Amino acid sequence: MFSRGARQLERRLRIQPLGTSLARAYAAGESALPQLTKDRYPVQRGDYAELTDNHLSFFKNLLGHRVITDASECEPYNIDWIKSVRGYSRCVLKPKTTEEVSKIVSFCNEHKVAICPQGGNTGLVGGSVPVFDEVVLSLSQMNQVLDINDTSGVLVCEAGCILENLDERLSDHGLMMPLDLGAKGSCHIGGNVSTNAGGLRLLRYGNLQGSVLGLEAVKANGEILDCLSTLKKDNTGFHLKHLFIGSEGSLGIVTKVAIQCPPKPKAVNLAFLGLKSFEDILKVLKKAKHELGEILSSCEMIDERSINVCTEHLKVKNPLPDYPFYMLIETHGSNNAHDEEKLNQFLENVMSDGLVLDGTATNEPSKMKNIWELRERITEGLLYDGYVFKYDISLPIENFYSLVPVMKERLGSDAVRISGYGHLGDGNIHLNISVKDFTQEIYKKIEPFVYEYTSKFRGSVSAEHGIGFRKPKYIHYSKSQESVQLMKELKKLMDPKGILNPYKVLP
Amino acid sequence: MARVLVGVKRVIDYAVKIRVKPDKTGVVTDGVKHSMNPFDEIAVEEAVRLKEKKIASEVIAVSCGPAQSQEVLRTALAMGVDKGIHVEITGAEYDTLQPIHVSKILAKLAEKEKADLVIVGKQAIDDDSNQTAQMTAAYLDWPQATFASKIEKGDKDITVTREVDGGLETIKCKMPAVISADLRLNEPRYATLPNIMKAKKKPITKLTPKDLGVDCAPRIQVVSVEDPPTRQAGVVLPDVDALVGKLKEGGHV
Ligand SMILES: Cc1cc2nc3c(=O)[nH]c(=O)nc-3n(C[C@H](O)[C@H](O)[C@H](O)COP(=O)(O)OP(=O)(O)OC[C@H]3O[C@@H](n4cnc5c(N)ncnc54)[C@H](O)[C@@H]3O)c2cc1C
Ligand SMILES: Cc1cc2nc3c(=O)[nH]c(=O)nc-3n(C[C@H](O)[C@H](O)[C@H](O)COP(=O)(O)OP(=O)(O)OC[C@H]3O[C@@H](n4cnc5c(N)ncnc54)[C@H](O)[C@@H]3O)c2cc1C
Fold it and tell me: Are residues A218 and A285 in the same domain?
C-alpha cells in the first residue's frame, strides 16, 4: 500500500519536512560565513570569565559527552539561521533534565560565565547565538512529551520539543498546537515561548501569552521556578509566567511548558487569491472577517516580489501567475459542508465585486500544502538573494503595506528586491530588503529610517520576532523610557550578574 | 473530434499519514481526507488539454465508489471536464473492488459513450495495481499505450511516448485506444474559482454496476493488512575498522 506511486510523487512535489529544507538552504550558502559579530558591530565584550579547563571539567563531569568543544562542531551553534551574526563560542552544553540546567546555570552564575540559551536556532534577530564566546545552552535534548490530556486539551512537555513533532503527537489525540510557523520543523516550543512567537494562525488561536498555561524556568541563580500550572484559570498572585514569555532568554531558561491546545479541525479549507491592489486586499480582509466569522483561521498576504522568491529560487509552483498581490485565506471548522458553503459564498461575492481577479480553493491536504509553501518558504528563499535586511513590523492596517513603496522610492536600484508579505489579519508585515552585499551606506539609508517611519504611525518595530541582538537600540521607537527603565530594573533583580543572554534585548 | 473518457479514483490524500486498523482488515478511512488519485489528475489534465486544443469534443470523467466519489468528480469538472458519471459501489463490494471490475465498467461506459480515447492514471496510489488500463484495453479489444509521457494526435492514430525502464519508447497506435498517464505527462492545473463555480452546474449521472451488467461480487478476501516493518535505528561508527568489525560480527563479510 502507498508504496511506489506515492514515493514517486513525493519526489516530484518535494514534500519534505521543513527541517530538511532549512538544513539544505543553510548548506547552500555555506561558503560564505558571516563576519564575526564582534567585528561587524561596535560591541564590547562584557566583564565575563573566559572559559577555563576547570569550567570545562565541571561541565564534562555533569554532562559527559553532551559537551561540545570542537570548533567545527560548535560552528552551527554560533551562526544564526539567516547568517546575519556569528559568535565564536567553544562550548555547547546539552542538558537532559531541569536539574542539569539548574546546576549549569548556578555554576555559571557563581563563576560569572555568560550563557546563550538556544532552542532550534531559527530566531531571526540574532538572539539565539553567542555574540562573543558565551557558553551555548542548547535545550535540544530536553525533548520529552510529559502529558497530553485529551479532555482538557493541555499538553505538558519539555522546552526542547520541536513544534512540528508536538503537532504530530497531538494529532493522535485529536488536538493541535495553537501556533504554526514556517520554521515548525526546526523551532522548539521553548524557543517559541521565549520569543512569544506569533505565526500563521494567531488571528484565530491568539498568542502564546494566552495559550501558555504554565511553565517551569531556571533563574539566573540556578533556582528552579515551578509555575507549571495546567489550569486555565489561576489568579493566585502575580502571573510570573509572563516574565518568561517573550523575554528571549534574558530572565531565565524555560525548561518545561504547559500549553492549552485547541481541537484539531475536522474541516480545513484554503483559498488562494490574486488581486490587483492593496486597497482591494483590505476590502477582502474586512469581508472575510464578517462573512467567514468564526471559521476564519488565517489571512495572509504576499506581494508579487515575495512570491517570486519561492518560484524562482525554490521552484515551488504558483498555480496562479502573475498578480501583483496574493491572499491566502484559510478556514478551520467542524463541518465541511457548512464551511464550504460559507467559503464559496464569500468567494463568489468577492469575485463578483471584482475585488478578486482569480483564485483557487481546495480542501485536499496535498494541494493545501503546496499552496502554503508559497507563503512559508519565502524566508528560506530570500537567503538566495544575497544579504537581506529583515523587518518585522506591526502597523495600523491602513498603513500595512505603505513602507514597501516608500522604501522602493528611497533605495531605487541599491536593492535587488524590496518585498512585503505577512500576517495581514494581525497587522504584521515582513519587509525584506535584499541587497547583493551588506554595505554601511545602504545600511544607513535603511536604518533608522524604517524604525522612525514605524514609530510615526505608532507601530511596533518588532511584531513577533523579538529584539534579540540586532534591535535593542531601536526598542525606544516602540517603548517609552519608563517602560524600558522598568525592564532594566527587572533584569537587574532577576539576573544581577547579567549572565543570561547578554548584549541582547535591552539597550 | 474525439470523445475522451477518463477514470478518476478517490484515494486517501498522499499528504495524509496512513494508519492500519487495529484489527488489520484494512486502513483507517473514516474522517481521513481523500482526494483524486494524482495519476488520474494527470489523465484529467491531458484530456482537458486535448479539449482546449480542439482535439477532443467532450471529456467525461468516471468514478467508481461510494457517494463521496462525487467529490473527485466535482474536482474533475472544475478542472474542465464536461460531465461526470458516478458508478455507485458500496460496502463489501467496494472494499474488495479490483481493477478487473473497474475495467469492465470503463469498457462498458466507453462503448456506451462512444469514446475514442480512454485515459486513466498508470496506477492508483492506494493499491498500486497498475492493471486498469491494460484490462480495459483487453475488454474493448483496443490498442493500449501505457505509461505515457507525451501524447500527439495524428489523423487517424496517436503517437505516444512511453516511459520504459531505462529510456523512452515511442509508439503509434490506431484509435480508439486506451492510454495510461505517467508522472511526466503534464503538471495538472489547480481549478480556478470561476471554474469551481461552473462545475457545480455540470451534470453528474449516477449508475450502478448492475445498470451496466457488471458483477462486482468480491473475488478476493483480505486476510491481513500490516504496516511495513519500521526501519531499525542505525549506529554511527568512529572509523572503517569499526565498520569492518561490525560487518564481520553480523556475518556480512
Ligand atoms: C455579582 C457578581 C458577579 C461576579 N462574577 C464574576 C465572574 O464571573 N468572574 C470574575 O472573575 N469575577 C466576578 N466577580 C468578582 C470580580 O472580581 C469583580 O466584579 C470585578 O472584576 C472587579 O471590578 P471592580 O471594578 O468592581 O473592582 P473593585 O472591586 O473595585 O476592585 C477589585 C480589586 O482591584 C483593585 N482595583 C480596582 N480598580 C483598579 C485600578 N484601576 N487600578 C488598580 N487596582 C484596581 C482594587 O484595589 C481591588 O484590589 C463578580 C462579582 C459580583 C459582585
Ligand atoms: C522560516 C521561518 C519562519 C518563521 N516564521 C515565524 C512566524 O511566522 N512567527 C514568528 O513569531 N516567528 C517566526 N520565525 C522566527 C521565530 O522567532 C522562531 O522561529 C521561533 O519562535 C524561535 O524558536 P527557536 O526554538 O528556533 O528559538 P531560537 O532561535 O533558538 O531562540 C530564540 C530566542 O529565544 C531564546 N531561547 C530559546 N529557547 C529558550 C529556552 N528554552 N529558554 C530561554 N530562552 C530560550 C534564545 O536565547 C533566543 O533569544 C520564523 C523563522 C523562520 C526561520
Answer: no
pLDDT digits (tens, 9 = 90+) for A455-496: 999 999 999 999 999 999 999 999 999 999 999 999 999 999
Q: Which atom of ligand 2 is nearest to the CA of A81?
A: 53
Report d(CA A145, CA A289) in Å as an integer: 36
Does A76 share its domain with A108?
Answer: yes
Percent of chain B residues topping a pLDDT of 70: 100
How confident is the model over B19-62, as pLDDT tens digits?
Answer: 999 999 999 998 899 999 999 999 999 999 999 999 999 999 99
Half-sphere exposure of A210 (CA within 13 A, CB side): 12
Buried b / exposed e over A142-163, threshold 16 CB at 10 Å, is: bbeeeebeeeebbbbbbbbbbb
A126 lines ligand 2 (CB under 6 A): no
The position carrying cell 568512529 is B238
A468: alpha, beta or left? (left if phi > 0; alpha if psi -120 to 50): left
**Ligand 2: centre distance to CA A179 (Å):** 12
CB distance A9–B125 less than 8 Å? yes
Give the chain B residue nearest A17 (alpha carbons): B15
Q: What are phi and psi of A4, to 5 degrees?
A: -60, -50
CA distance A468 to A466: 6
Q: Where does the pLDDT of residue A11 fall: very low under 50, low under 70, confident under 90, or very high at 90 and above?
A: low
Residue A29 is predicted with a pLDDT of 43
- Helix (H) / strand (E) containing B73: helix B69-79
Query: Which residues form the domain of A79?
Result: 41-138
* A433: β partners: A389, A418
Residue B115's Cβ-count burial label (10 Å; 0-12, 13-18, 19+) is buried
Per-residue pLDDT of A261-308, as tens digits, reads: 999 999 999 999 999 999 999 999 999 999 999 999 999 999 999 999
* Res A7: pLDDT: 62
Residue B200 pLDDT > 50, yes or no?
yes
Domain that holds residue B32: 2-223
Q: What is the pTM of this model?
A: 0.89
In a domain, A499, yes or no: no
A155 and A249 in a single domain? The answer is yes
pLDDT tens digits along A326-342: 999 999 999 999 999 99
Query: Which SS3 state, helix, strand or coil, does residue B67 take?
Result: coil
A209 C-alpha vs ligand 1 centroid, how far in Å? 22
Q: In the predicted model, what is the mean pLDDT of chain A? A: 93
What is each CA distance from A390 to A83, A291, A421, A473, in whole angstroms?
12, 34, 11, 16
Helix axes B132-140, B99-112, angle to 10 degrees: 50
Binary contact (B38, A9; C-beta < 8 A): yes
- Residue A252 in contact with residue A322, Cβ under 8 Å? no
ipTM field: 0.85
Specify the residue for cell string 551574526.
A85
Of B190, B191, B161, B163, which Cα lies nearest the Cα of B173? B161
